[in-house]
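Our collaborator T.R. sent over the components below with a one-line note: 'Predict the complex.' Nothing else. No constraints on interfaces, no templates requested, no preferences about which chain binds where. So this is a plain run: every listed entity goes in together, and whatever single assembly comes back becomes the starting point for the next discussion.
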Amino acid sequence: MILDGKCPSGPLPEKWDRHRRSLKLVNPANKRKYRIIVVGTGLAGASAAATLGELGYNVDVFCYQDSPRRGHSIAAQGGINAAKNYPNDGDSIFRLFYDTVKGGDFRAREANVYRLAQVSNNIIDQCVAQGVPFARDYAGYLDNRSFGGAQVSRTFYARGQTGQQLLLGAYSAMSRQIKAGTVRLYPRTEMLDLVTVDGEAKGITVRDMVTGEIASYAGDAVCLCTGGYANVFYLSTNAMGSNVTAAYRAYKKGAFFANPCYTQIHPTCIPVSGDHQSKLTLMSESLRNDGRCWVPGEKGDNRPPHEIPEAERDYYLERKYPGFGNLAPRDIASRSAKEVCGEGRGIGSSGYGVYLDFADAIKRLGENVIRERYGNLFEMYERITGEDAYNRPMRIYPAPHYTMGGLWVDYNLESTLPGLFVLGEANFSDHGANRLGASALMQGLADGYFIIPYTIADYLARTAPGGVSTGNAEFRKSADDAADLVKRLLSINGKRTVNDFHRELGRIMWDDAGMARSEEGLEQALKKIPELRDRFWNDVKIIGSGYELNQELEKAGRVADFLEFGELLVLDALHRNESCGGHFRVEYQTADGEARRDDDNFSYVAAWEFNGSDKRPVLHREPLAFENVVPDVRSYK
Amino acid sequence: MDLTLYVWRQKGPEQPGRLEQYRAGNISAEMSFLEMLDVVNDDLIRKGVEPIAFDHDCREGICGTCSQVINGVPHGPEERTTVCQLHMRHFRDGDSIYIEPWRARAFPIIKDLIVDRSALDHLIQAGGYVSVHTGGVPDANAILISKPDADMSMDAAECIGCGACVAACPNGSAMLFTAAKVTQLAMLPQGRPEAKKRVCMMTEEMMKEGFGNCSNHYECQAACPKGIKVSFIAKLNREFIKAFDSHGE
Ligand SMILES: Cc1cc2nc3c(=O)[nH]c(=O)nc-3n(C[C@H](O)[C@H](O)[C@H](O)COP(=O)(O)OP(=O)(O)OC[C@H]3O[C@@H](n4cnc5c(N)ncnc54)[C@H](O)[C@@H]3O)c2cc1C
Ligand code: FES
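Returned assembly:
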């Protein structure tokens, strides 16, 4: 099937306006007759729930944490982009659009990205009005910093805690609606299934994580805002609970999954210290504004960093990409780090690390300025490594961080299942094959505050409110299936822990489908994953019952889904015979090791349809048309 | 290193709880405290014992989910450090470690080390926001905010809502948490129009949720992993008096 992204026609700058004019509205008196289910309270979910509640809809909102304020958006450090052009350095909506499309290696829809750039400015206004304390200069104006993949300063920030402040803004707005009674909150509640009635999304099945009770909720539409799936690699910068379950179960109910192989490996994370490691910590990309990446010029040089003279260091990003230097985009910076470590020039006891050095910036600006800019990040680094980065360079290495792939959605953020909308990192929409820094926060809030309120109305206006209730047979079946799954997991009573299996899956994914992928490795992964999955279903050990708080059971459900989803990711990576953005196939590279894209054959979105547990999924394509930019070779030299 | 743990185990809210002793063997200095507990839990599972339930998510000190009292101190011995950021290099071979949940009237225990902190959400719902609708707001640079004010607002906004302040307070008071939110918004022009209502609603809600009063022990500040200062409580009090004055007018 050729998928239609439903992008409006007309000149790029007018598309969204024209489209909004054509969308149907729900009149104010009717809004309260509709119920909308929102799963997730990160930036996307909280902003959507707050805005839809304000408009007068009834909203049921769910999250697995104990409080909606803890969605993983809270961990974003660096900042959020907008095309305000406050520094007068040549930014514009078009430039933000162009940088994002180019950063994504020309694998995103033009119309979506342009809309994102357009509403970016409204986001900053909105957040300031809510009381988000962005950084300011001494005259009282908002301050900006630079991020990778851009030559302008367009990133707004709140110390090293931008995600926290933006999320608390959205959470507060949602809290106001909870008090007003338009939003009902269900924390510590995990979505286990999507319920469809006559092919449309009409509800979800959840498990109360305190009592273990399985229940269903019905609504007129469902918004999934459940974040990304980087934990398929086991070690990532995501929170421990981040999962693919909600999206994957929706996929099994008929929503197509797009570009699962587009995963982002972030160049600046604290290196792995041992087998006990449970997660990896990001050091914000903003550090690359002032930090310089280097490794020793010679293999096996074990001298401490300060004993290596300037001339014997290789500032590899500055050498290879003089135009962008240390601010080269993430995929390129990560691969370069892998490359120098592969040559035996990596640092630290494992050899998998590079230096991020602030000595020059401290000399130039003084330690105080650096402390002011990044103090909390240096503190975090010291807490974890016991090292003081003011006096010796940080050690960093790439780690799985973000997933550009996600459930397929059209321009209205609607999936292939009518009534199922997908927002934030959970969808695939705006970042193509690689996301630029500070653009995910922008996208989550764009989706929630400024897009979904318009597009969901168009769907609801064509739907009679309250059409289905949980008494419907589909709801009962969904609840029974979810309960069966819990029972099955608990009845295995094998020998190995859930973590064991997750770690093993992570190793396969990282080795065979991580920063560099080959046909051979991917084929191997396609054999290893089902075999591991089999062992999981025969040998996993979960203690306790389903009718109580049971964290091992929660984890097991998520890992069971990762064990299926990992295969889908590998399949997608294997079919995409090109390199683009975060997807690097070793067979497809230029003589100097850069990604070689194949626009003739792969300029499309790959959307996978579930086809039964024992059959290969079916591939559908959405061709990408570029009317306003020319997909050229992405050069940062 | 080898450690002896004494961990609070409690099956459910209504069941009695007690400290159980476990051995944590082969712990490396590089591990985080929660990774040490992961190792202990994997051991327990293999032995057929129910693992210790504890709250955690980001494991990088920002989500505010982790919540354990270690050797009598919320979040343990390191200053300005959450449990998830506490590393084992701060302990020594042979140490005994006592691990307990947050204890406060407003935070009922759910299981083992997990407590119910929804009372903190209720405080925000009572007025911890600016009543602005999405859309129709002025340009972000239309309102100038002096850097010191913006910085002070941000100092207060750094609160991660973990509840360590409540757990540390002999009265189980949520004064520091509330004061941080009141200050963040009171420092900004956007927050001023509702400042009086906000401080009244939030302090009233504190009583309703079963939080105690503040009697200036300053344990909250000592326990706060984000260094939120008790001077914000003074700010809350000033805001409260201002609100009270105008009510009387
Ligand atoms: C460490 C880190 C730093 C980052 N820094 C930046 C940055 O500086 N700038 C930038 O633009 N981006 C950054 N990003 C990326 C960005 O933070 C995320 O992409 C974005 O916040 C995702 O928001 P979201 O709302 O889509 O999902 P999330 O914030 O991940 O929220 C997911 C929500 O879904 C809920 N949920 C998930 N599964 C279920 C389920 N099965 N049942 C019920 N609820 C469920 C969760 O409870 C949660 O509330 C960073 C990411 C990380 C990890
Ligand atoms: S787990 Fe997030 S702060 Fe500790």
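Summary for T.R.: Residues 29 and 88 of chain B are 5 Å apart (CA to CA).
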